[in-house]
Structure formats: C-alpha cells, structure tokens
Amino acid sequence: MANPRIKRLQSDYKKVMARFRYSELIKVRPVGNSPPEKYHVTYHVKGLTKEANGQLKEIETHQVEITFPLVYPKTGPAKNGPNAVIKNTAVPYHPNIDQSRVCWGDHWAAADQLHDVIIRIGQIIAYQSHNIQSPLNGNAARWTAQNEHRLPVDDRDLFPPESIPNIRRSGRATVTILAGSTYTDEGATAKDEIEGSLTSKIKTSGLGFDTDQPGSHTIRYNVKNRSGISAKEVARKVIVEKDAAPDIEDQIVIGPITPVDDESNEPETGDKNIYVWPEGAEDWSGPHSITKVREMLADEKIKVEDFSAFEGSSEGATVADIPGIVEPSTLETASPSQADETAGDDIQILTDRIDGLLKEIAELKESHAREISKLVTEMASLKKTLGKSPEKTTPGPGFAHGFLPFIFSKLRGPELTLYNQETNEQVVITPEALEQGLADRTISMDDDIWHEDAADWMTVTELLKSLSSTAP
C-alpha cells in the first residue's frame, strides 16, 4: 500500500498535467520516477534581473526546478512544501527571491495544491505578488517600495484556461484557380471542449481579392471562446494563375510568316503577321515582323514565355514557339575542333571539382584529428583530477573510450536511470550504453540521471563532477 507521500505525489502529477496542458505562459515537465519528485517549469512571463553594471533588465523566460522534502506534504512551515529554485536562467530581481531560491509563502498546509504554488511563483516573477515586510532581497524590497507605480512588470493572467478552442479548415490548404474564374471558399469549423461548436463565431479575413489578377492570397480563420481564449490560427493559400492565351479578336487577320533575310538593312524585315501579349498588358501587341519581335526581346520589352499568335499557332503558344525567332547564327553547328575544345573544358571543370572534394576530405580528417586530440587531453586532465589512472584500453570511437565505465564502477549498481530530454523518455541503461550515447550524441551532458548513492536526479555533468570530487 502506497504511503501518504507517494499518494500525494501521484495526485499532484495528475492535477498539474491537466491544469497546465493549455497554458502558453507556463510549461511544466515532470522529471524522474513515477510519480515524479521533480518538475522543471518554464515561465514565459516578463520579469526583472540585475546586470553586473547595476542596471535592471527585463527578461521573458525563467526556468524553475521544483522538488519535495521527505516530510512532504506534512503541514508546517513553507519548507515542508515544494522547494523552488531558479535553474539555467538569470536570477530574477525580486524581494522574495535570493540568489536562486524562491520564497513562495510562509506556511504550507496539506490542503494547498502544487499547481497553485506553480502559478504563485509565476506571479512573483511578474511582480504581480511581492512581500516587502520579510524579504529575502532587501535591496529589491527597497526598489519595489519606491516603484510600485511601475508594477507589475507583466499583468497577464497566469491562470491556465480550462479549455482552448480548435479550428479545422474545410478543404485543401492550397487552392489554385485560373485568372478570371470565380473563387468560393469552403470555410472552416471550430469547437471548444466546454462550449461546443464555435463555427458561427469564426472570423474570416483575406476574402474579396481580385480573381482577375494573377497572384497569391492568404485567407485566415480565427475564433475565441467566451473566456477570450484564441484558437491557433488556421490559413488557406489561394493561388491565381495566368489564364491560357487570350483569344485573338476576329478582326485581326494573321497571315503567313515570310522567311527573314538576315543581311537586309531594312528596319522591318518580313511581313508583319505576329502578335504578342506581354505580361501585364491588357491587349495584344502587333502586328510585328520577326525582326521587330527580336528587337523587343533584346530590349526586354517582352519575354520568350509571353503569349504569341501567328499562322498555325496553337492555343497557349509563346514567343519561343514563333518559327525563326531564334537567330540563325545561334543554331550553327560547332566545328569538330570547337566541340573538342568544349569537351576539354568540361573535363577540366570536373577534374577541378574532384580535386576540391579531395581537399575538403583531407581538411575534415585534420579537423577530426584535432577533436580527438582535444578529447584525449581532456581525459588525461580528468585522470589527474581523480588521482588514479584507469586500466589501459585500445582507443576507439566515443567519449574517452573506457573512461566512463571506470567512473561509474564507483556506483553500487551497474545500471543507471536516464531521462533523455530530446526523446522525453526515461530508460534504464548501463554505464557502457551511457558512454556510447555520449559518443553518438544521442545523450546530452544536460540530460538527467538517477543513481542510488545520491538518491536524487542530477545532470550527467553534475554526476561526473560529484564522482570526481569524491574520488580516493
């Protein structure tokens, strides 16, 4: 039968995870055993910190570690309740925070709830709550008394919402239509766990765009519940593409294209029987001769992908499809000597690229050699700190091969419990598996690990330091 402490920790876990599942300002992560005896809490609220030059600076992210004494949850002084310390972030400048410890209250009762303490800590950081009568930081208390008119630093409500609405888009996320066509939006639906359907309250923006003009448009859907909590915005992209080539008006007569005499000095060579629709134009341009079309291309007045019409052209024909539009000189076949020269250039380019790759490989090898040398030096330093050399082994891949098993042989058991922050999983591993995980970088030195000697969770870095400091 579970003792009162374990039963209370189990109850805390269920309530905390349910209470903060929709919170954007307070993120809670349990650490360690089940039920957890440690929580890492990240507060995305504005607070103050004092820099080395004495100036106050506003910061928006704070990390707090919460643990529990052995007498928890026995009624008594605040030390009987959750212990809260600042971790990995700047210490907030506040009357009730000293160094890293957070004083969230003066008394703990078994009826108090952990989730309420977590919210109270956030209110302290944001200066929504402060006690200047019995402060931990006297300087911060005096500053607070003189600057009440500037407080709180963050006035947002830190109590998590009981529910959050959800929007679901109807239809595809991206829709493509042709210019000139009609667009009918499929809309979206929304609901809330407590209020039910919120579809009628959805606010839609981005409609009413010009479907005659090619371009990209974004339609956005937003909704709030009665508590004013907003759903995560959902959007749809509508792409309007250029329609097929416009029809040539009936009164325009297209005749045959006369072959071009490139040695002619006349400004217009050949019959004027070609029409072009430049991008962005409102009508056909023409009629033009081939020479004129070439000049327009050279002057960048038109592009080869613009629509064109000429005798025998198909719907959607472009300038590139006009017979004879390419200068004859560009179609000349290269002589054998020219072809050989071109092939030689290509071979030289490939050869240079291969040489470059070989040089990069050599540099990578040199870089890895430097890293290996650095690790060997670090291992030698740690050996010296321990005052004892481990048994020699053949060097191999990994973090100080054979060194971590020696360190962890100081523990009473061969297995360790690891909480991997990347995978959010808790697993039992051997010292050898930990060594390989550090080598493969699948395990971080910041991951939490449990061992019986310490009877507590700590990071891999803290564990190594602890073992080094107690080495004989």
Compact overview of the structure:
With 472 residues, the chain is α+β, with helices and mostly antiparallel strands. The protein has helices at 4-19, 114-125, 138-146, 290-298, 336-386, 403-408, 431-440, 460-469; strands at residues 26-31, 38-43, 47-50, 56-59, 62-67, 76-77, 83-86, 97-98, 101-102, 107-108, 166-169, 174-178, 188-192, 196-197, 203-205, 215-222, 234-241, 274-277, 285-288, 307-309, 416-420, 425-429, 448-451, 456-459.
Properties at a glance:
extended, four-stranded antiparallel beta sheet, single chain, Ubiquitin Conjugating Enzyme, 472 residues, 26% helix, 8 helices, alpha+beta, four-stranded mixed beta sheet, Immunoglobulin-like, 4 domains
Question: How does the SSE layout of this entry go?
Answer:
Layout: H1 4-19, E1 26-31, E2 38-43, E3 47-50, E4 56-59, E5 62-67, E6 76-77, E7 83-86, E8 97-98, E9 101-102, E10 107-108, H2 114-125, H3 138-146, E11 166-169, E12 174-178, E13 188-192, E14 196-197, E15 203-205, E16 215-222, E17 234-241, E18 274-277, E19 285-288, H4 290-298, E20 307-309, H5 336-386, H6 403-408, E21 416-420, E22 425-429, H7 431-440, E23 448-451, E24 456-459, H8 460-469
Parallel strand pairs: 12-17
Antiparallel strand pairs: 1-2, 2-5, 3-4, 5-7, 6-10, 8-9, 11-13, 13-14, 15-16, 16-17, 18-19, 18-20, 21-22, 21-23, 23-24
